[in-house]
Known about the structure:
The protein is an alpha/beta fold. The protein has two domains: 28-96, Roll (Ubiquitin-like (UB roll)); 101-221, Rossmann fold. It has six helices and twelve strands. The chain has a six-stranded mixed sheet, covered by helices on one side. The chain has a three-stranded mixed sheet with strand order 1-3-2. Helix 2 packs across helix 3.
Amino acid sequence: MKARRAFLVLLTAGVVGSAAWLVFFSPVLGVRSIEIVGNLTVPSERIKQQAGVADLHPLATVNLADVETRVLGIRQLASAKVDRVWPGTLKIQVVEREPVAAIPAGGKVAIVDGQGVVIEVKDAAPPLLPLLKVDRPVPGDPAMTAALKVVQAVPGEVAAKVRQVHAGTAEGVTLHLSDGRTVIWGGADRPEEKARILSSLLKRERAARSYDVSSPDVVTLK
């Protein structure tokens, strides 16, 4: 009887040990593919290389947090989430940063997202991105933060006409349109009201060259 129990204990230990080896050490359940989801402009191969996970590395022992950190080393990515998909796939879901403005930087332009994070540096600003002029072009600066909020609040039909955004202070954001007209937007407060009023004014008032919507309650035109 004792011998039988000992045999069963050894058999169970062997099965558990084999299963543990299969999951944690064997390439049988290793990473055979990496699935990239959510990327539009960043090549999948670049993300895979940045992930740094070797082929057939045991899927169970991949440090997901470390992979996410490495992937976020790509400046164009705002977030990354890594999951295991058994039996052998590592799934990386990313969200890319959306460019909203260009900032002059030593003869080139820095393309930034809505938080002021530099996505990339180019020789010239893309045609549809406004040029942002601020005294301190760094994330968190009040004037820059306000300017970026305004850029994102400008209504779609007007956004394509904005060529330059100047912000001397957080309350002094001004838009310069492609047709020479100027919009004094003011601060980033009451964006919906300002956007609605501006859209209406630009459609109706063709003679004005300057629109002041900084106070939606008292709008002035010149």
